[in-house]
Amino acid sequence: MKRVFLLAALILFMAGCGVRSVDLSGVTFDKMAVGDRFSDIDTSSYKATDRFPEGEGVHNFEECQITERKNRITRINAEFEYADICVNGIHDCKNKEDVIAVLGADYTEKIYDTEQDLMEIEYNDKKKNIKCGFVYSQRDDSLVLCRMWDY
Q1: Three-state secondary structure along 12-52?
Q2: Least buried of 34, 38, 50, 77, by fewest C-beta within 10 Å?
Q3: What was the pLDDT predicted at 53?
Q4: Cα separation, 6 vs 72, whole angstroms
């Protein structure tokens, strides 16, 4: 019984020792962010598309995909080529190192798409319950996609 308790305590301790929280309040996509009211967003400059899967509250555009629930944005996916992605006041992040220089090294890294040689660094804002992933090409570390969602 004592071993089970010690094992459980160790697991809980290790779970708390993961990646530290990073303030993601300065990450925006064309001046919008997760948590903003969808009705306040001007989507007239975006080109609607049916290229992506649809669902309730999902708005698909060539430049980005926005998901909202009860008029609050819950997820944004945006391509660096088409959207103005601002990371804490920096509008010209071009590669993985640029993002790390701004947000720091408290991220997790994972495979995003093996066939396309894409990896993702993911930051976690535990205070706001938001995650943000920066997808980059392993070939040259250039940024391809930025994703932000609540959890």
Answers
A1: HHHHHCCCCCCCCCCEEECCECCCCEHHHCCCCCCCECCCC
A2: 50
A3: 75
A4: 42
Task: Work out the average pLDDT over 109-124.
Answer: 98
How many domains does the chain contain in total?
1
Q: Is residue 88 part of a domain?
A: yes
Neighbour tally for 34: CB within 10 Å: 26
- Token pair for 137: 């090409």
* Residue 136 falls inside a structural domain: yes
> Which class for 51: exposed (0-12), middle (13-18), buried (19 or more C-beta within 10 A)?
exposed
Residue 3 located in a structural domain: no
Find the domain containing 69 and state its range: 21-150
∠ CA(123), CA(30), CA(87), 5° rounding? 35
> How far is the first Cα of the chain from the last one, in angstroms, to the nearest whole number?
35
Band (18; pLDDT cuts 50, 70, 90): low
Residue 14 lies in a domain: no
Q: What is the pTM of this model?
A: 0.85
User: How many separate helices (H) and strands (E) can be counted in the chain?
Assistant: 2, 9
Does 9 have pLDDT greater than 70? no
